[in-house]
UniProtKB/TrEMBL annotation:
Residues 1-34 are annotated as: Disordered. Pfam families: Mlh1_C (PF16413). This is DNA mismatch repair protein Mlh1 C-terminal domain-containing protein. Residues 1-16 have a biased composition (Low complexity). It comes from Gonium pectorale. Residues 17-34 have a biased composition (Basic and acidic residues). InterPro entries: Mlh1_C.
Amino acid sequence: MNGAVSAAACHGAADAAGERRAAERRAAERRAAERRAAERRAAERELYEQRLAEYEYRLKHVVLPAMRGCLKPPRERATDGSVVQVAALERLYRVFERC
């Protein structure tokens, strides 16, 4: 009877050790998955910031200069009085500097 109890105790201890190792393995896998997810988020954030910088550059150096050309009146209209300048940019700066 004593031998049977100790054999069961051994199996119980072995099962407990196996369960502990399995739990440690699951925890390690979970940490690795969290680390990979954090790395993926960092890479996505970096890609987003890079694309945003490219977008801002294109907007500033391509789109706005092209629009500026479209918003200017033709030279004939600018000189014949069809288009009147209502404010000068320099004067606007002076007005808003006081605010």
